[in-house]
Amino acid sequence: MTSLFGTRSRSVKHGGAAERRGARDPIERALQAAAARYAGLHPRFRWYARLKYRMDPCYRVIARHIGEGSFTVDLGTGLGMLPVLLGELGERRQALGVEWDREKVRCGLHASRGLPGVEIIEGDLHAFALPACDVITLVDVLHYYEAHRQEEILKQCRAALRPGGRLLIREGDGSRPGGARFTRIVEMGATRMGWNRGPAVRFRPIAELRSALVALGFRVHEDELAVRFFPGNVLLVAGAREHEVASQAQAALPAPVIGIPSTCELDPTDDPTQGAQRLSLLE
Prior knowledge:
The chain is built from 12 helices and 7 strands. By secondary structure, the protein is α/β, with parallel strands linked by helices. The chain has a single domain (26-252, 272-282), classed as Vaccinia Virus protein VP39 (Rossmann fold, 3-Layer(aba) Sandwich), CATH 3.40.50. Strands 3-2-1-4-5-7-6 form a 7-stranded mixed beta sheet, with helices on both faces. α2 crosses α3 and α3 (26-36) crosses α6.
């Protein structure tokens, strides 16, 4: 608790510096705007979102991997924090958050209200039909499932990614000693208390996850995300290998038909109220 309050005191002391950084960095500005969207919620949700945006580096790092004009599906979105951040970044980014905890879905709907191209829906990632997309994110999700279920999820993600798409996975490394054990203990405690509704907690070695991704045809890069309050965390950035991207793109081209023009229409931007309407039907 002392270190947490110490960090908070330093944050207040250097608040002006943080604001100046936000004025220069669009991601910092988006983080501040996203955190403000959780005002009005129960304090446990409001403060959770504010502290996670401030202290967890995964949001900054993941945002830098998601380009303008892309469509991202965030599986196990929780409070919808990543889709809300992408919505605040703008530049035609679209994001869909899928979460099976109804109370967290309501929080995400509250925070995403009025953000174009952002939708939060209630759904089980095992039964959810993944749409074609540019990016899929799994932030602290896989460790709630056994290894064979994890690999089923990875296969579904691989099939849904468009040519050149990316799969971004943040996980704790199950093989690391020392401080990384703290992260695993915290996750187990959060599950037992009911904050996270996963069936169990099973952290795998990052090397195993990496091998599973390579076997699916991904080229994998690791970003270290371990910091003081989140030791042992890693971001796996998985993209199709270059020759596979080219072959997928070629396979996606329609066969030429003489005399008949080929057209392709994109779906219009999703109405952000659709998630609320869909949730109201379930109540």
